[in-house]
Inverse folding.
């Protein structure tokens, strides 16, 4: 990932086709030692391609990837009704957990990081 990020930084800086030397310079500026094999792989894969087009294609691919928080709905008969009935119980449990967290926050013995 660091090699791709360095490549993108170089292109953002106006270098449309960064070399290994350019990317090593960026990585060295933050104290990262470059692995020549990985660096050459990134350069060979990205060289001659339009970065904006690659990013647009990547965003299109990521749109189909589920991001956390998705609710799974079971399609088995009879399982939908209990799931609906158990939803309020889950909300009540969350409220109780929040109350417990507030009580635990008093364990700092009167000292606070920002006092």
């Amino acid at each position: 990932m660091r090699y791709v990020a360095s490549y993108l930084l170089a292109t953002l800086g106006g270098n449309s086709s960064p070399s290994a030397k350019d990317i090593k310079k960026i990585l060295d500026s933050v104290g990262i030692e470059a692995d020549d094999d990985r660096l050459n792989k990134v350069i060979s894969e990205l060289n001659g391609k339009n970065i904006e087009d690659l990013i647009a294609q990547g965003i299109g691919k990521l749109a189909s990837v589920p991001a956390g928080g998705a609710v799974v709905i079971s399609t088995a008969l009879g399982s939908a009704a209990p799931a609906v009935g158990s939803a309020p119980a889950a909300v009540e449990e969350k409220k109780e957990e929040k109350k417990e967290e507030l009580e635990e926050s008093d364990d700092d013995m009167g000292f606070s990081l920002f006092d």
Summary: The first helix runs from residue 2 to 12. The mean pLDDT is 76.
